[in-house]
Amino acid sequence: MRVAGWKLVLLALLLPTALTFVGKVRADDEAADVGDADPVDGATPDEVDVDALDEDEAEEEDEPMLEDEDEEDLDVSQDVEAAAYFIGNEKNEFPVGSTATALISFDNQGTGAFEVKTIEGSFRYPQDFRYYLQNFTIDVVNVTVPAGEQTTFVYKFKPSEQFDPRDIGLVINVNYVDDVDSYFRDAVFNETVFLTEPTTPVDYVGMIMYTVGSIAAVYYVYSYVFSEPSFKPTTTKKTETGTEGDLSEWLPEDTIGAGKKSN
After folding, report:
1. C-alpha distances in angstroms, 35 versus 24, 31, 255?
2. How many whole angstroms separate alpha carbon 226 and alpha carbon 216?
3. pTM to 2 decimals?
4. Is 115 helix (H, G, I), strand (E, B) or coil?
5. How far is the C-alpha of 135 from the C-alpha of 157, rounded, in Å?
6. Average pLDDT of the segment spanning 167-187
7. Model confidence over 58-98: pLDDT tens digits?
């Protein structure tokens, strides 16, 4: 009986371990069968490297955009003289994050009218102007310039603050049509410019007010806290004086008579 009891105890201890081992072996076999099976349509048996995909997308975003070949097919009209000017900026230096202003002169020297449709600008790679680095806002103009007349347009753009100081290509195009709806494009500015550090405006009024306020505060503290009073209180000493004149009129008659007798 004792031997049978020990066998039952030993069997009770080993049974959970045996069941766990059998279950693990069966699970491994099922996983192997699933791996050997053909993948279902739309499923990807291989693991996807998410980090690699993110890097590829970042590289695609950093790559500059190539100019369309259709845009290069537009020519300049021989009857139009157009140019862009930057007043007060002869060196063509533009601070990043600051708005720049270009004045565009459009001179119609032909016999027919031209309608200026849009004005657009962009930054390009200085080594190859076909690649865009930043596109600016397209200004819709829709202004008709009659034959023999000249007009001026204002175009504003803002270099991105993400640029470091560097050389960069700047292109400003004017798109227009003639009276028979023939489209033209004139690159009124197509040169290499220089981007500089952002400029911070100086608040001179605030500096002056701060300086005056500081001086007034120091003077107030010095005058009313650290300095002694500039005046001392004066005391008036009262001195009693006798009554001038004859005192007999104030004395009784008996006193006056006694005094005369003694004399």
Report:
1. 17, 6, 150
2. 15
3. 0.54
4. strand
5. 9
6. 96
7. 444 445 666 555 555 789 999 999 999 998 898 999 999 99
